[in-house]
Amino acid sequence: MTPFPLITFLTLTPVVGALVLALAGGRDARRSRNIALGFSLLAFLETAWMVAGFDGKSAALQFAEHHPWIPSLGAEYFVAVDGLSILMVLLSALLVPFAIGVGPGNVDRPHAFHALVLLLQAGLFGAFTALNFFHWFLYWELSLVPAYFLVKLWGGPGRRAAATQFFVYTFAGSVAMLLAMQAVFLATGTFDLPDLARLARSGELARGLGTKLHWTGLAPEALGMLLFAGVFLGLAVKVPLMPFHTWLPGTYAEAPTNVTMLLTGALSKMGIYGFLRILAPIFPSQLRDSLDLLTALAVLTVVASAFAAFAQKDLKRLLAYSSINHLGLCLLGLFAALQPKAAAAAHGWSIERVAALDGVLLQVFNHGLTAAALFGFVALIERRSGGLRGIGDFGGLRGVAPVFAGLMGISIFASLGLPGLNGFVGEFLVFKGAFPLAPVAASVSALGLLLTAIFLLTLVQRVFAGTLNGAWKDFPDLGRAELAVFAPAVALMFVLGVAPQLALNLVNPTVVALVNRLGF
Amino acid sequence: MDRIVEHLWIIPALPLLAAGIIALLKRPHRKAAAALAIGSLGLAFLVSCVAFAATLHPAAGAGTVRLTHNFAWFDLGESTLRLGWLLDPLTAGMLVMVTFVGSLIFVFSVGYMAHDPNFTRFFGFLSLFAAAMLGLLVANNLLFLFMCWEVVGLASYLLIGFWFQKPEAAAAAKKAFVTTRIGDLGFFLGMVWLYHGTGTLLFYDKGAGCLEQGAIASLVAQTTLGGMAVSTAISLLLFCGAAGKSGQVPLHVWLPDAMEGPTPVSALIHAATMVAAGVFLVARVFPLLGASAAGLPADGHVPHTAALAVVTWIGAITAVFGALVAVAQSDIKRILAYSTVSQLGYMMMGLGVGGPAVGMFHLLAHAFFKALLFLGAGSVIHGCHGEQDIRRMGGLRKAMPATFATYAVGMMALAGFPLVFSGFWSKDEILHAALAWSPSRLPFALGLFGAFLTAFYMIRQMWFVFFAPSAHPAARHGHDTRPDAAAPHDSPPVMTVSLAILAGATVAMSLLATPVWPWFHAYLGGHLDHLHVGWDADGAVLATMALSTVAVALGTGVSWRLYSRSATGTDAVERLVPRLFGALRGRLYVDGFYAATVFRLNRAAATAFDWIDRFVWGSLAGSTAWIATGFSWLGRLLDDAGINPGFDAGCAGTRGTGRLVSLFQNGQTQRYLRLVGGGIVAIVVAVAWTGKK
């Protein structure tokens, strides 16, 4: 008897939910919300079941399903999870009900809105579990399309321009990636990601580029670099790495705020995941050749985004830059982990590489949780203020809404990496690895940690402290229902701050195996 | 013995638990909150005493008692990150002090904060503060110490900004957090470097810890930038953190502003917790700072290393700087704040020239008398209905006798009046060690000058507050017997009892570190069994005592003479040297300098990066988008020219061009999507075709 196809089942759950909404959602906001919440919670339960059954001591692919599909295209249906993806799947499963719980406020066609959110989740589940590039890419695009429509149809006043920019940017990246991977397929005859990684290690990929693609007239090295650049572009736009980020502040600001929760919380993580699953294993030598430039860009991302966050007046744009900053740290850790080092050093470097990558994966999860919570609070602020969200529009809110201020304050401190809350351990591990491996880059990036603290505390100061702005003397505190949505998220911040091993133990063996496989 | 260290976590856990419960309490549960906070810290005090007792009797020949208990936190690669608890005299002494002084401050707060609507929250934050500080003390792992260290920073942020409606309080809270975080970046990087260099962050681990022989020897042997030993580089990075937390120049600017918090918070920050953390850190990692090619610093002998020299100089400069600025302040709390800056300088200098025992004894002595002074100041402010300007007080000696008597004890201890006050002996030890410091005598001279200044500004303050003719209208007409609500009055017993206990402790502390019976040295150094009563001090000790006594006497005399004869209105020093006074009053322009440089630079960078983002990258992206749009228009034109004419003809003009254009504009992205779909299909077909061959 074949084992239960849990991953397929999980990926289909939100699709079914979307269908139900489309057919039976009606125009009643509450009803469509409840249906969406129900399906996303079901997906969460399935994910919880998966995590419970996941063997954290093993680096192997688990819950694998492998079926031939279109052999001539190298397309096989191959899904599984391992340490790289398990936290991402869990994050997607957590954030979607969270975002639905926060809700979009009063919107037109709520059933369509929620159906698209569920489709987005299906894309996320698919992209984080697919191990064949063919359908990995389909899911990658599938998550893009609902996001585009959510921004375009339900966004703020500048939504049309933002949506177009979002689409053009991510789409250009996707096309580049697709073409590059087509060429890789022509050279190797497979789309299977673990296979491709193996071929890259054995050198067959490079040979294939020489023999099968000689008609391009390019030397294999140049061709390899070109293909690497194509895949890189697709991922760098998604994360984003500066200077491929300009779509982000506008899109995050114009998107309905609970969709922004998903954009920053889950979609941006697809980029990081792609770096780990595709780029690093398949193009290791090209990555290493361009590492200095990439590290410099990561440092630029961390520092420049933190400075830019200072200058923002709009809370959503401020948090958007803060997100770029946090993801820049992830890339810093990732690039540092790949830094070549002389093997004869006094201490093994592999522990530092593992620390950096463990830190990256933890940071990915933590940033997803924290950033989503912060955008969620902004959504509530917008709803209470009739759409206002300028940093100077408020003042003294802590006096009238102490619980609101307290929980958002906790999330802010989690975001700036206060120990005891979730953000710290990830940052510590990233720096523990990055500092010895890339001392200058890490030291400069540490400036980002300071700047983050300053602009986030300025936010607290301007919005929550000071004399109460008379216009908001009836600003309601968190209601019971809102508390039910946010309290679990905040509780999770504490849990992961104190017991990061709950997440780390899931990923550590896979990371060790990855570092050993990459071989330095 | 081992059972004690295994359960050392109980000490920080008790106030943490209280903080957690209070966080869930509603506002009206004031009594419950206060009882929980005080009860838990009192209990922690008792447990601390048990732990302290365990460190009093080292096994024969074992030297210092050092108990550790380590446990795994999480797996990292094929290794494990372990945390642990550590009990040694350094920890135990601090535990007792923090829980004792902390409890008294908590009790005092019940009276001081009685009318505050957020009373409950206040006790929650106080408990969190205490928990973090105690956690920092029991840590046997630099990472755990750092974590608690940051939570201390958070708690101080919350407490300094407790009256968040006041914009100054909110600004001061942010300033404290950010300024200390600047130092913490150094701490953070030093910590990860130490972790990389030694493979562990456990202080003591049966010979394998990062403060033990093997690890330190390897750090000393490696060199980094400019030929500096790695151990020195790490030490200096860690010291950045200590300098931020302990208000050393140039990172001292947050500390005086921290006065915006309620006065018990000032007492807690300035005496028992926050600022003590930096000094404690330096004492804790002293083996690293003092490590040289000759090995670990041996007991009783302080080596001359580059790291310790930096500590000494920064400390000496801070000691004089703080004292100078204190001379010209007129806010009662601000004077005490700068005196804290100055005293912290002494502690650092003491660590640098004399080692942990010298620096730590001044820390402990200071904790008692500074808590006493701050609470006394709180009592004065409470009694004067919120007045903080010393020039508008006066004559309170009669109105507030209990406060006056206890304040005088604290003041004499701080100024270093001879023999029966702890401050005299602790400062004397520092000066004595500085005198023997071979690289330079200048720190000694600075220390002596600081002692003179300390006596000067404290007498000035005493005179204005307690002796000067009363500035209060009700008191001008002789002693006012009516129970006038507006007249100054002494504080309720719940506040004065704390003052009395602290005053007693200040005097009692002076017995512990005299040259006759240097108990504290023997305790920290682990040779209590060799301790005996007797005079075995050299001439230098006597000379230092004499010199510092002269400095104090001079400061007292000059100050008293100047102020007691001056007319009210202007300050005596201000009349004598107005420009110098102005400079000191302006805190030597350090804050202004930062505002003009660092802040402005920061804002400029923010604007620049935002601008680059919007216009440079943005226009690049914009032009790309324009090109893309251009291509799609080109496609449209081709469509129009090549396909549509026939179509249009077929439809015989039933479609308006305008409708067509709007269709295109609305559907531009869908069009992209169609193109993509088509493209993918085309590629797939092409691939399939080549695949067949």
Description:
Chain A is mainly alpha-helical. Chain A has a domain at 286-520. Helices cover 75% and strands 3% of the residues of chain A. In chain A, 64% of the residues are buried. Chain B has 693 residues and is mainly α. Chain B contains 28 helices and 2 strands. Chain B has a two-stranded antiparallel ribbon with strand order 1-2. In chain B, β1 (67-76) and β2 (79-87) form a beta hairpin. Chain B starts with a helix and ends with a helix. At the A-B interface, α5, α6, α13, α15 and α18 of A face β1, α6, α7, α26 and α28 of B.
Features:
heterodimer, A: 520 residues, mainly alpha, two-stranded antiparallel ribbon, B: 693 residues, two-stranded antiparallel sheet, 28 helices, 2 strands, globular
Look at the structure and give the mean pLDDT of chain B: 80
Summing up helix and strand content along with how strands pair, one would put the structural category of chain B as mainly alpha
Strand order of the largest sheet of chain A: 1-2
What is the 3D shape of chain B? globular
Output mean pLDDT of chain A: 85
The string of secondary-structure elements of chain A, in order, is HHEEHHHHHHHHHHHHHHHHHHH
Major sheet of chain B: size, sense and barrel closure? 2 strands, antiparallel
User: Which shape of chain A, going by the Cα principal axes?
Assistant: globular
Termini distance of chain A?
41 Å
Please tell me how large the radius of gyration of chain B is: 32 Å
Low-confidence region ranges of chain B: 474-485, 649-669
**Helix and strand string of chain B, N-terminal first?**
HHHEEHHHHHHHHHHHHHHHHHHHHHHHHH
Structural class of chain A: mainly alpha
